[in-house]
Amino acid sequence: MLQKVSSFLAVSLLLWSSCAFAKDQSTEEQAAINDFNKSILPILRKHCYGCHSHQAKKAKGGLVLDSRSGWARGGETGPAIVPGKPDESLLISAVRYEDYQMPPKGKLPEATIKKLEQWIAKGAVDPRVNKTARQQQKVDIAEGRKHWAFQPVAKAAIPEVQDDQWPKAAMDRFILAKLEQEQIRPVIDADRHTWLRRVSFDLTGLPPSVDQIQDFLADESPQAKEKVVDRLLNSKGFGERWARHWLDLVGYADQVGTSNRVFAQYSWKYRDYVINAFNNDKSFDEFIRQQIAGDLLPHDSPQQRAENLTATGFLVLGDVEIVEADKEKLLVDIVDQQLNKVGKAFLGLTLECARCHDHKFDPIPQTDYYAMGGFFHGTSTIYKTPRGVWSDIHKLDLPETKQQTEDRMKQQKAHAEKLAGWKKERSETQARQKELDQLLKNDKLTKGERDKLTKERDQKAGRVGQLNRDIEHAEFFKPTVAKAHGVFDAENPKDMRVTIRGNPRALGRLVPRGFLQVASDTLPKIPAKQSGRAQLAQWIADGKNPLTARVCVNRIWQKLFAEGLVRTVDYFGLPGDRPSHPELLDFLAARFVASGWSQKKLIRNLVLSRTYGLASTHSKSAHAIDPDNRWLWRMNRVRLDAEAMRDAMIFVAGQLQPPTRGSAIPLEYAENVGGLDPKNVNPPNF
Amino acid sequence: MPIIRDEAQPGPATLRNVFDFAQPSELTGKRNVTAVPTQALFLMNSPTVKKHAAALAKRMKQETDETKRMRLLWLTLLNRPITDEERAEAFDFLSVSGDNAWTELCHALLASNEFLMKL
Amino acid sequence: MQSAACGMGSLALSDLIASSANAASPLARRAPHFSARAKRVIFVFLAGGPSQGDLFAPKPEISKLHGKPIESPVGDDGQLRVGVSQFLPMAPVAPVRPRGDSGMMLSDLLPNLSNVADELCMLRAVVSDNKAHAPATLQFHTGHIAEARPSMGAWMSYGLGTENRNLPSYITIHPPRDGRTYGSGFLPAIHQGTPLRVPQNAEEPAIADLRDDGSTTEAQRRRLDFLQKVNRRLLDRLQTDAQMEGIIESFELAFRMQAKAPGLVDLSSESKATQEMYGIGTPSCDSNAKACLMARRMSEAGVRFVQVTMGGWDHHGNIRSSLPASCASSEKPIAGLIADLKQRGMLKDTLVMISGEFGRTYWSQDLSGTNPIAKHGREHQQESFCTLLAGAGVKAGLVHGETDDFGFQPIDGRVHLHDLHATILHLLGLDHERLTYPHHGRDYRLTDVYGRVVDEILA
To answer: Residue ranges per domain, chain C?
Structure first.
């Protein structure tokens, strides 16, 4: 029976070992561990745990023997075991009945004592990890701040280079300085054709047209490249291309749910918001604030309010769980997804790893997770539908301008008329169908007459089927006030409690809302009855945040150069990649913030650089020193991604239509909805 | 730009899924790049690519001079001038490829690394 | 070294001398480090985490305490560590009995698998490092919980090449969603798993676009030759590019697959008895049965690593009703596969592995907090779970490893995933410490810096 007790103690200890990569043992160690488990552990359990374990009502003498650190730290009289030295170990003198007499109920058999002695003599291998030991390894925030990514963005001096002719842009100097230091010569510049193709794909996801190639080649002015870049940046394709990159981070889809999905009818509003944000070069800090806290931002027009609300789709779209009987669990899981998303997209961190324990690698204590989780815990994302265990994401009514209201009224009228027309046609067709059925019952019909009637009846039946589908579809898609998926503050936002292993019923202590300690000294002042997301957004979108600008700049760099300056673009934590050019990263991040967080300006600067214009050809000597092209002696080659590949094929075939935007499922095509089989998805709501 | 999960949306989703589209369930700033035979099969045999090849060939045929047409094809697809060697090879290929020769040529080039990569 | 590049990169493989005439190909057959017991692997992945307590390793202590709440383990800080008030010990949902000569314990839910119990080798104290599906699945396949490392099939393909140049060396039927689980990571791209699906209807092909409708083979080959010439010229110009080489290779492989694969995925040539043995035609398990039979045919044809994924094992709730259904969908196909390999004499050099990414707790889980225990499920458990092996080089009928009375912590015969990976490579004649690939300045292995071959289970 003692075994029962100890194994549940083990539960409490070992459940901690989640997200991290546990260190494994060598073969020898493994053998020793096996020995320990086989012959020593049972002795301790049987004879000692009753009084000397965490399970015991009171650990006698302050000594616990249920873990390595338990005996290593020892009780009131010091360490109980000195590895390798049985004679100096209190435990041995106690079981020998020398100073203490343990166990008190009766001396252990000699053979058992021998086993303990041998074990200690061999080094007292003990695999039992202890939480006391872990607690001593509390996250050291001050130490954590030494990690490069948590240091403030430094003001980087533009380095001196030997070859003053080579650099075109300031950033080229950083690249060249490193190359010179490594004694690598960059390859030649890409020819103009290659450069044009490259920049066209990078900025719009499309190849240049033949006319565009010829225009560029004919332009001998020194500004030829700038003209191309400006044309591309100002084309609609720019936003469409770059929005796609962002949507990868959002988990954007026209459905939501993890295992079960439902159609997220207004997703496209968020998508179009992102496209417009890129095309209008919305400042990135504003982009952050809108997506995290758009519903809480001030506004001075219905359009602006609508845009703010739409932007919060960031927090609800994608892999949001919607089928779960346990609504409390659902709530904390959604908080987890939102933290995961915000952490990854803006901060380059894996916050979700600190849900059940302190982060294994990064200076993020578990309480930071709940401090930040509090912002989302006080946020309403989904609502329970009348159907069983299903929930759905919120659909917010967007404010209308006067013009929009008038237009909608007109549409509604037209729609009602169309629907009425179809319904009238349907009842007429059905009436005729009945008539035909009657006529066909007449067995005196000639074959010719029968065939004719049968044919007409089949036609009518087909038409009714079509009308049924069209009507169902049209009713579903009837024009309403414009809506978008988004969030709003819950009724009475509160701080969040630690949930033990994510279990919403096993609650730990309350953690006041706050930011990542390692990247912040300030505590937010959250207005009463607010979730605090506005304060969170402000903290993230602050030029002083060490992560935000670096992460964003690095993402843009990666899209243009195929690899980031930090190659783990989504993860800036301790085991992540270190920046190849830390000064350059900081230089770009600082300039990005100073430029008003303009992504277009940053992209423009990068693609007009000498480095971006390098050929992607091979260089034996450079390759010998830097096979990975870490120092960018040439351009990286990369296969087009799926969208660019598809669009390019259609484009060269001369058949690419400009995207229409709007709903992913054009309303005029009922078959677009048929494929989703609404009945199988979520009947009453669909 | 509709993005429906799984195979609920036919058409372009096939290409997306074959070529490492970022599934909405994984939030990622950097997509995988894979090279598997299923991609090669898609490029060799799928009706999608064949359709584009035929449309491209048809579009090219508006240029009646075959040498000019060849130059145009390279410029359209690979965005660079054709070399003499390439031109000779391409015409050799056409000469043995029967009625559909231009479509076949377009198809081959649509599947080529130079078209599908950014150099 | 540059022509050897082929992404092959370095000296890492210089001691694996290519024996094939086609040595330039990264898929060329290569000799193992030492004599191999297994030539190939079939991995049946039970995605979601099957419950070992219900299926393979019942604990009397648990059954005795069935439904009785256990005391809460409380940490030093006075905080509850686990929400145990809802975790009641829960007896197996169906009887588990000794089977075969070995007396290996298997559930009544596994009647067909019980018939082949004496072929199985059961590891009862397998350990991995993460409790969530995605990282645990990734680790099972690649050794690492988070990064895009090469998957085990890719490592085997890299180490041994292919036995059949008309097929990929690594095929994965109904693969897990995360592409990294069958990815090649930093290994040459051609080593990655090729996904396959069992057609759901007559029109649907197992491999999309396997046929070139509308072209003759000659025309297609002509087109491909032209394409490859264009590709090679570009490669010559740029000199080295592992990805381009992988793509060029993938086209050749795809071309050859067209000839070979349709026959392989067509199961109609199999006898009625064989089909029946796998459970083909039984609606509950038809799809998995076809997948398993396809796997055998692929293995027979020389595919180095074949994986069949069977989902539906994530029984958080009402395991009493859902576990029997999961078993019914899969146990006959798996048993059929083992018996069929045996009768064909293939089991002696084919290693079959059956496992989830983790197991489940012996105590129950009730997310609603209000259900009676009869409707409870079980939570994930990576601290210990069961993996079944069969075939080449493992001791048939052996049960290895034991956990405590609550089926939680290994007390004997602990096998970490790294050890399992090391053992599989060992059976294939590969030393897990020598099968390396240089990347980012260091030599990487499937087992990272860990792993021990579990000698105790080797025949």
So the answer is: 32-200+277-457
